[in-house]
Amino acid sequence: MKLLVLALALVLATPALPASAHPRPPRDLRQLAQQTGVKIGSAVDIAALRAESDYRKVLNREFSHVTAENAMKWESVEPERGVFTWADADTLVENARRNHQQVRGHTLVWHNQLPAWLTSGVADGSIDATELRKILRDHITTQVRRYKGKIRAWDVVNEVVEEDGTMRQTLWLTHLGPGYIADAFRWAHKADPHAKLYINDYNLEWNAPKIETTLALVKELRAQGVPIHGAGFQGHLGIQYDYPGDWANVMRRFADLGLEVAVTELDVRMVLPVTPEKLATQATYYSRALSDCLSVRACREFTVWGYTDRHSWVPGWFEGEGSACLLDENLAPKPAYRALLNVKRPR
Ligand code: G3I
Questions:
Q1: Cβ–Cβ < 8 Å for 143, 108
Q2: Of residues 334, 346, 232, 252, the one with CA closest to residue 286
Q3: Between these two residues, 11 and 173, which has the higher pLDDT value?
Q4: What superkingdom heads the lineage (predicted)?
Q5: Is 265 a catalytic residue?
């Protein structure tokens, strides 16, 4: 009896916390996005979206933001000159609409996955600089207009800076000169004035020369009044490398220029075979990346580059590496998935 009285007294003496101080842990990533206020997205494999009902179900349950992994790239949407193939991109946008997902458009100007008619035309001189500029303007205008009002953010230029901090010598730079970047943003803005326009790159999380050049470029563009609104950090990480510990500070430096920032393509690969220890380390990389994003007010989106090891670019590109995603091949959550659910926005 004495004990009961003591326990009751203790309960009464403890000041009640408001319900919001200890919300229930989120049940899935969609709820985590709601609780933290950051958009949580995934890249989407359109063939899987069409053919695999389990893939579709999990994608639509977990994610409130999506990016086409390949379907909006130039070779996908205009494989032959003047022949537009929008079916895959339309499928993604329509699925997003039905499932209340916002969309990142990826990507308007890149040096990879260009159609052969374009690269060979430039190489053999049948497309000169004046025509190339017009082709780029038409491409951006056509694609951005088609999805006007349906794309939250566009990766306007992708991977334009080299690892050593020089501007990447792409077909665009070589033939059009550095002004193509400002032009691309202006054309995209004209076609959809409400879309957020991003510069996007990998290794921007840690590589000093790339960071400095990209910051200088953004400053210059802003000074010229170019409509650039965001910096995207792809975040292709591997547990065999140190976690980029300065990432949040780098995000802040871009935010200080007036940009929003986003994690646009996160995955965390490992050297195979998979072990419980490696999965535990991978979980810390994923949760640190989300914590970094949540520690920067301007970080609006946290997107993974595919959510399941069943469809991941990693094994095809890095021999002997894999298991980079949050869910395994059978769509079972890995420790990294559970670790994300426990990340809180810092007070
Ligand atoms: O479309 C062809 C298909 O017709 C053919 O049958 C098949 C045979 O291999 O290849 C298909 O093309 C592949 C394409 O993905 C579409 O699935 C290419 O071989 C393959 O190289 C291509 O890889 C993509 C890669 O970009 C190309 O650069 C990856 O799926 C995609 O995840 C990756 O994504 C990039 C981001 O856009 C930018 N940041 C880096 C990221 C990872 O590399």
A1: yes
A2: 334
A3: 173
A4: Bacteria
A5: yes
Six token digits for residue 88: 């895959």
User: E strand or H helix at 122, and its extent?
Assistant: helix 116-123
11 versus 170: the higher-pLDDT residue is 170
Which pLDDT score is estimated for 22?
58
The third-level CATH classification (topology) of the domain covering 27-341 is TIM Barrel (3.20.20)
Distance in Å, CA 70 to ligand 1 centroid: 6
pTM score of the predicted model = 0.93
Six-digit token pair at 202?
């990998």
The atom number, within ligand 1, closest to the CA of 73 reads 37
Whether ligand 1 lies within 6 angstroms of the CB of 55 is answered as: no
Per-residue CA distances from 118 to 140, 144, 314 (Å):
14, 19, 27
How far, in Å, is the centroid of ligand 1 from the Cα of 76?
10
Residue ranges of the domains in the chain? 27-341
Nearest to 42 by CA among 340, 343, 296, 281: 340
Q: To the nearest 10°, the Cα dihedral for 277, 319, 47, 230? A: 80
Residue type, 228: I
